[in-house]
Design goal:
The protein has helices at residues 5-8, 30-35, 37-43, 78-90, 109-114, 176-192, 239-255, 268-272, 290-293, 298-311, 330-334, 336-346, 376-380, 423-427, 433-446, 449-452; strands spanning 11-14, 47-50, 94-99, 128-129, 150-153, 158-161, 196-199, 259-262, 285-286, 319-321, 352-356, 454-461, 464-471, 474-481, 487-488, 494-499, 509-510, 515-520. By secondary structure, the protein is an alpha/beta fold. The protein folds into three domains: 5-102 and 176-440, Glycosidases (TIM Barrel); 109-161, Oligo-1,6-glucosidase, domain 2; 454-520, Golgi alpha-mannosidase II (Immunoglobulin-like, Sandwich), CATH 2.60.40. It has an eight-stranded parallel β-sheet with strand order 9-8-7-3-2-1-11-10. It has a five-stranded antiparallel β-sheet with strand order 12-13-14-18-16. The chain is globular. Bound molecules: 6-O-alpha-D-glucopyranosyl-D-fructose. Residues 60, 63, 100, 144, 164, 200-201, 263, 265, 325-326 line the site of 6-O-alpha-D-glucopyranosyl-D-fructose. 6-O-alpha-D-glucopyranosyl-D-fructose binds next to loops.
Length: 522
Amino acid sequence: MIRPWWETGVIYQIYPRSFQDSDGDGIGDLAGIEHRLDYVESLGVDAIWLSPIFPSPMADFGYDVSNYCGIEPMFGDLAAFDRLLVSIHARGLKLILDLVPNHSSDQHPWFVESRSSRNNPKRDWYIWADAAPGGGPPNNWESDFAGSSWEWDAATEQYYLHAFLREQPDLNWRNSELKAAMFDVMRFWFERGVDGFRIDVLWHIVKAAAFPDNPVNPDWTPLMNARDRVFQSYSTDQPEAHAISAEMRAIADDYGGRVLIGEIFLPNERHARWFGTPEQPQVHLPFNFQLIENDWNAERLGHLIVDYETSLPSFGWPNWVLGSHDAPRIAARIGESQARVAAMLLLTLRGTPALFQGDELGIGKVDIPAERVRDPQELRQPGRGLGRDRSRTPMPWDCSQNAGFSTGEPWLPINADWPTRNVETQGADDGSMLKLYRDLVGLRRAHSPLNAGDFALIRASENVLIYERRGGGKHFIVALNLSEEVRRVTLPNCEVLLSTLSGVPEPGMLRPNEGLIVKPTS
Ligand code: ISL
């Protein structure tokens, strides 16, 4: 049986503002991405997921869409998009776009109409509600970016719902016309040739019809993110959203060979339901963020990998995400040496791995001076470590001006160590993170059990994680030392295929921060 590309492949996330600028405005664009496709291909990855490229006022950097069927002028136009897609396909790569169906921009013509009067035909395309009987918002729902989810509209004297910024009003998926319009958006891009969608906050798209108050979180303190004041029990993960997810899948299946990825943050059991059933499948890959969300120690990781594997339905294919434009960079979180171990983990687990641009260079902590902060989440709750700019800084390509990213002033600062940490320098260095990533992706491609073989945990103790991958009569062992000390390990006679460190591994030991992929010989 030939397995589909989204099972065998590796996904590479590009944040378009920060990949490559071609016109000197300091912001990346589609022509810039096209110019860098040789690099993407050289990583050995199979698919590009592009964060949103649609027209947008950029209140949330593209996650506030004002036209779902166009291209943001600062990124290019439909002709530039078509050229990019042709170049991507010519290299045998796939392109996944970011669909943002939960909310639009408040500048979208749909919302402009919806808010124009209570009688407007598009009024019900968004979620409007009267004030609470005593005045104030209809319920206690909190926006993800601080403050009530409800915004008062003085002209029509109702509140509208926004799970994120007030500039991102939530669409009403209970309205059949809205639903049909968004399904047409999917068809528009499928017909243009895109290979799939990553669906933004999919578990948010339907809300409990009567808008009950969310349960209050008794453990919340003012030092925590304001949105965690309440649990999102009634504002997310409603049964009706699963039916919509199944309809989206049916549309994708009409075209063949396309993939749907759901952005879904939920505990395992509820997360797994987004696969749907064999008769009524939903998304192919409900994205699994557990490597991002959990502490970095072997015991924790061992448990969560086994728990996740156990939670999957028999037909469900796993996936693992190590970084994104929303999360702190892995090397900033656990240090560069462990980021090498993390790369080995990501690329030797069962399922589809997703990596985020720049992590393959080991970009670590980037300090963003207060006057250059752009992330609306950070600007609304400063000083809480919520800033997402730090993972969105431009790609450092070479030693030329602005690291080869742009001839103009980059929209965010570049990592301070760019003169040494850039693609050109690392490409010429056998000990670099980039070389490690290329080797790992290459090894994974050469040995299919590293992608699809059975997973068995051998050890998760003393901060050492050892597991085996078996399939097609082949057998590999991955041994990861998450500690900074030498650790004794028991491994069979084996050939070492790759170490995260240079030099020769010592038999029966893992050096500090060492990860090994070995092939037993007896
Ligand atoms: O709820 C979370 C984790 O439990 C958040 O991380 C939340 O899911 C996340 O912020 C949603 O992200 C996506 O939608 C946002 C956008 O700002 C992000 O960039 C995008 O990835 C609104 O569209």
